[in-house]
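Posting this for the archive.
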Amino acid sequence: MHTESILTHLKKHGQALDAEIAKGTGIGLQEVRESLQELSASRAISTCSMTTFKDGQPVEGIFCRIAGYIPSASPGRKPGAKN
């Protein structure tokens, strides 16, 4: 399905809701949810269900991130670094 583009989006933007992934990749929300289930079953991502409130109305979504992925350190000096 769209697993590669979703993984690329998560690597670039970090953890995100399914609606944010759909908007960022241009894939339909239902297709994103199906791909997230597939990725979760293969343990490529970690997911949890989340309820947010927009204008007082509950909105159900899937919050996900890449399993075991640690982004590289940003360039530049780090606090506490020894010279």
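The mean pLDDT is 87. Helices lie at 3-13, 18-25, 29-41.
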